[in-house]
Fold this sequence. Notes:
The chain is α+β, with helices and mostly antiparallel strands. 13% of the residues lie in helices and 20% in strands. A four-stranded antiparallel sheet has the order 3-1-8-13, with no helix packed on it. A three-stranded mixed sheet has the order 2-12-9. Strand 4 (44-53) and strand 5 (60-69) form a beta hairpin. The radius of gyration is 25 Å and the shape is globular. The two termini are 26 Å apart.
Amino acid sequence: DDAGFWANIGQGNPKTDKMARTLEELKERAQTANWQRIDKDKIDWEGYVMERSYHNAKSTYLSLAFVMLDSSTPEREKEYTYIRPHGEYYNYLVEKGYEIKSTIPNNSPTVPIENETEVKEAYGLATYGHHHMARVKYGIGGGACPQKGGDVSIYPWGDAGGGWPTNYEEITPLCDAFLIDIKFWVNLDKQWTEPDMFLGNAGHDYRGQTAVMYQAQANWYGKYSDPYNVEREAKNPYELDMTEDHKIQEFPGEDEVVPVVNFTIDFGVVGEVKEYFNTEIDWTPRTCLADELEDQDGPVESPVRNSNTAGIAAVSVYILAIVSFIWA
């Protein structure tokens, strides 16, 4: 029962716990992060595994959707609910007399934390993910959180969102504001309850560091372009402008060089990983033992086939998955 859900509640200073939103601010300060376990006794939650296309690619992706509802009071339930007051779906709900609990998006959700009496705000990051500090270095591209809902399109270029065209633009991804452990079988050594386990600074290149430099290709992420938001002159509280010219970076030309932005996340603790031991594999070609025995003594009965017992092998697999939350 040590696997759980985690929220980045920061280190206690709202000025540094909140994500930097401009190039100047990214250069001036680090964002302070701190993931603590969500109190599962105070929430209702459901998980869904689905396979669907993503990133406009022909291949499909395995996605995990996590729906969390703090139903401790009716008022808390409203904080997790949003219906855009516009369009056919909204009009249908109104026509049929359904109760619409909230038409105001909550981009600063609060959650109950273990051993805390008050709920805590969960903070998103400027990075694509706390394990993604070197996407540019390894030629993957991007590195920044898309910072708004909607079509991921040709991320990190153009006017990219963080999901699918059917998503509300104003429901922001809050990248890594929430983490989830996915665990199979048993522990090999350390428990999963410790907040320093599997952090982004636990990798070999960053062992011993509390603050780690991240990189992202410059673009103006999260700028609203949906007509609904543009007409209302709505502003995205997570808009992230990494550019110097304050323009959307379209797909770069063959000789165009897009600036890379360096910024820092301070984890506050040194990250830890589970201990593994290298194994040596004997790659010598194997032969079939039954065939060897038959060649020597003629046909024999397999001792496995006549045995009343069977050996059972157990495999422990550990996966740490970073998911996007859907506020329903």
